[in-house]
């Protein structure tokens, strides 16, 4: 009886195990590749699609016939999907997935750029890369705030409120003082204020952390909206005209083709964001503080047994996360725009998605934020060249990219074991 049951179980396991996540994604890539080759190839024109290595139409450029490029890159996408469907080794998964997605985007761009009106049938890659980083900045700061909190065991759904309070505080105090540095400090304190409330209610009073985060987001919207109407709208010159940080050019590095003008002619927020990714990554995985933080996020009881002050460490890291997110909010009002009601527009939740997509890692969060920033920049570019795609759909691109990335690409991920679980000292 047992000898006949074993083969049946084995066959069932093999059947169920064929459609792995890699093969399912392979099918999706294969379908996308065929769609791109057929549809984008038919819609593209024989006009050359130019990808310039500068900020304008002139200079060096990569050119390809629009129809040929759309079909070629579509076939490459299909080929990567076919390779995944065939069951290549897992170590090739990330490379093939990345190559397939890039090829699909290039096929789409060959259609869009070649079909653009004369004089606009080019994509300035320097502007696209620069715009990607600028639009990703609040996501980078917000995702880093999430890393600091959730690696400590506290769910940070309040990123939206921390960014918003940082943007508002930076605009208000920067305007009143006439100093960008005062505005920057005020923005950090504004974000830390929301984080302090999250820490007190979640750690001290054991309030559900997700519910508390949503409440704090609404609190930030209410406070900033009320003060905006009472102060900023009535006297914008005094309360909503903060000075702006200028761009700082780094000699030699700024002359590197493509990357130099985009990365090394930026403002303080760009350099600070990239620096924070490096510092937090090294601190989290190479220092005693990082070891204690990760242990508190995984097994606080064991950490407490070894002498780690669990609650104190959580308080400190959550407030530090607020400081980081507050600076991210200031990247709006001290570099780009004047403050408006609810100007963050859901970027805090996209930062939370970037945190998950990046697997609770600073470098992973950076790459995820750049992915979402590129989707946002792509929507802006397509609108500028008069794309035939409806503007409403273009506005949806960053959010669609978020849904697809978290639901389809991220796969199975494991949050820190104690994430969201209050610790009660015995």
From TrEMBL:
Its main location: membrane. InterPro entries: ABC_transp_permease. It is a multi-pass membrane protein. The keyword Glycosyltransferase does not apply. The chain crosses the membrane at residues 25-44, 64-88, 95-116, 128-147, 154-174, 180-203, 210-228, 268-285, 318-337, 349-372, 393-411. It is found in: Cell membrane. The keyword Cell membrane applies. Keywords: Cell membrane, Membrane, Sugar transport, Transmembrane, Transmembrane helix, Transport. This is Simple sugar transport system permease protein. It comes from Micromonospora echinospora (Micromonospora purpurea).
């Amino acid at each position: 009886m047992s000898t006949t049951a074993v083969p049946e179980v084995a066959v069932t396991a093999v059947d169920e195990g064929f459609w792995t996540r890699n093969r399912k994604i392979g099918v999706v890539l294969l379908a996308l590749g065929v769609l791109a080759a057929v549809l984008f190839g038919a819609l593209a024109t024989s006009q050359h699609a130019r990808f310039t290595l500068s900020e304008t139409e002139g200079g060096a450029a990569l050119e390809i016939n629009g129809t040929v490029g759309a079909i070629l890159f579509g076939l490459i996408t299909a080929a990567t999907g076919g390779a995944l469907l065939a069951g290549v080794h897992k170590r090739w998964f990330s490379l093939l997935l990345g190559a397939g997605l890039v090829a699909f985007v290039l096929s789409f761009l060959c259609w869009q750029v070649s079909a653009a009106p004369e004089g606009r049938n080019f994509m300035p890659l320097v502007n696209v890369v620069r715009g990607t980083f600028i639009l990703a900045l609040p996501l980078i700061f917000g995702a880093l705030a999430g890393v600091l909190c959730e690696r400590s065991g506290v769910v940070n759904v309040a990123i939206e409120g921390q960014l918003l309070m940082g943007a508002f505080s930076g605009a208000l105090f920067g305007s009143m003082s006439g100093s960008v540095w005062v505005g920057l400090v005020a923005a950090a304190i504004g974000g830390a204020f929301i984080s302090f409330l999250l820490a007190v209610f979640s750690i001290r009073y054991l309030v559900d952390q997700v519910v508390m985060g949503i409440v704090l987001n609404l609190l930030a919207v209410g406070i900033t909206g009320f003060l905006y109407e009472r102060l900023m709208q009535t006297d914008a010159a005094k309360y909503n005209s903060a000075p702006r940080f200028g761009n700082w050019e780094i000699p030699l590095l700024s002359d590197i083709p493509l990357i130099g003008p985009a990365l090394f002619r930026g403002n303080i927020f760009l350099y600070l964001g990239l620096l924070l990714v490096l510092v937090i990554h090294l601190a989290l995985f190479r220092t005693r503080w990082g070891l204690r933080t990760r242990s508190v996020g995984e097994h606080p009881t064991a950490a407490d047994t070894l002498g780690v002050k669990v609650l104190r460490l959580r308080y400190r890291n959550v407030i530090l996360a607020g400081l980081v997110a507050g600076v991210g909010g200031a990247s709006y009002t001290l570099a780009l725009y004047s403050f408006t009601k609810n100007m963050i527009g859901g970027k805090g939740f996209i930062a939370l998605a970037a945190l998950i997509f990046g697997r609770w890692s600073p470098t992973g969060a950076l790459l995820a934020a750049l992915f979402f920033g590129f989707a946002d920049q792509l929507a802006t570019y397509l609108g500028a060249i008069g794309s035939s795609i409806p503007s409403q759909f273009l506005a949806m691109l960053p959010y669609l990219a978020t849904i697809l990335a978290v639901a389809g690409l991220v796969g199975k991920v494991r949050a820190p074991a104690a994430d969201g679980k209050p610790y009660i000292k015995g």
